[in-house]
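Hi Y.,

Following your request, here is the sequence exactly as I used it, all 293 residues.
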Amino acid sequence: MNEAIWLEVALNGPWSRERQPKIPITADEIVEDAIASADAGASIVHFHAYDPVSGRQRDDYEIYAPIIERIRSQRDVICYPTLPFAGSVDAPSQLSPAQRFEAVEKLAQAGLIEWATVDPGSTNITHYADIPDGRMGFVYSNPESHVRYGLELAKKYGIVPSYAIYEPGFARLGAALHSAYPGAPTPIYRLMFSDGITFGFPPSDWALDAYLRLLEQVAPQAHWMIAGLAVDIEPLIETAVARLGHIRVGLEDAPFGCTHSNATLTDRAVQRIEHAGRRAASTAEIRAALQQS
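Below is the corresponding structure, written out as tokens. Let me know if you'd prefer a different format.
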């Protein structure tokens, strides 16, 4: 086996337990899931912080920092947080770039993170199952000023931008904006698929190939991985591995009501990676590959 495949686990997401009952919410649950997933083969851990009282997402440094410290004290993995929505029920007024990236910047200053979420575009998030009931989706908004702010932080602190590519235009804009920040680490292009939400492409070989042809034009040297929301990404793993792509799994991305744990989803991904003739990369291997980018 030659090239090792990066494996990321996204532990929870913004769904609350109404949509995804098995997600970890408390600090203890997040740490426990992160360690179990690391032991199963994940070297990258992404999670959303929750307010322990309200049970709602709250992206504060004071919540993120001790969780990351606890995880990193027990396992050598890359941990990184999310961003609050620019506007939502918890932030009815539009947040500024500085407000959205406040926790990220503090975590970078403290040396606790190596990656950061920087999503280069906006899209509608509408669940197919909600449409017949008249339940409205929402706009996942990332104005260009916010993307630029995130790239400026990436350049300043040397943190790797993790680009979620919900639509092809995200890749084009992300690549163009990155070129305006020389010295910023090369972004990772996380290609987002879905079965249950209307954005982008379904998880199919032709869709992956379309994205890869685009990346050949706009970001030919960039690392990429497959992921998504409300999606069963497992059938696409072998195809991605054959094309030397990387993998993200976890309860943030899985179909709603998933009965597997994060550790089980990680273990299943490792089995598919190995079936495709590769192996899951160590954290040291991921860092070394990024230094060469």
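The domain at 7-291 is CATH 3.20.20.70 (TIM Barrel).

Thanks again,
Q.
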